[in-house]
Amino acid sequence: MPAAAPATTRTVVEELLLRIGGGDPESIAALYAETCDWKLDWPQAEHGRTATPWIRHRSTRADAAAHYRELAEHHVPGRAATEIERILVDGRDAVVLGEIRQTARSTGHAYRARFALHLTVEDGLVTRHHVYEDSLAVARAFDTEEPSGAR
Question: How far is CA 105 from each of CA 74, 79, 86, 109, 142, rounded to the nearest angstrom?
């Protein structure tokens, strides 16, 4: 019997996006390598803040599952959507471009944030997960203080 063909980068990325949409952290994390390079393009001093604890660098499959659990805990269920505009693939690397729409559980504020997600796939698993997103939109949605001049 011939060996199964290795998963392509596009196949793994598309499956990852489907699983993220399904919302099961353990299923999502199963597509990550045991160790992975997970970075977020946020100011380092802002990583792990109380209002946004999921925003920090990660390095393991278990960290990936924790990320998706924390993300779900801090957003209103059923009030989220993601629009994937493009998936660009070059060998082991892929870039996903799109926009997320979420509602912060703690404030009730809805937000939209454009993003680029750089993934690397090796042996059918994600080994790099770098996110570039509109961090200001996210931070403002979780800000419990009134903006200056809003009185």
Answer: 5, 10, 29, 8, 8
Residue 74: C-alpha distances to residues 48, 50, 55, 141 (Å): 13, 10, 11, 11
Q: In the structure, what pLDDT confidence band is assigned to residue 42 with cuts at 50, 70 and 90? A: confident
Mean pLDDT of the chain: 89
Residue 63 has, within 13 A of its CA and on its CB side, a CA count of: 18
Q: Which residues pair with 98 in a beta bridge?
A: 84, 115
- Give the Å distances, CA to CA, from 98 to 51, 109, 112, 117, 148: 24, 20, 10, 9, 30
Q: Which two tokens stand for residue 67?
A: 């990320």
Beta strands 81-90 and 32-40: pairing type? Answer: unpaired
**Predicted structure pTM score:** 0.88
- Given pLDDT bands bounded at 50, 70 and 90, which one contains residue 41? confident
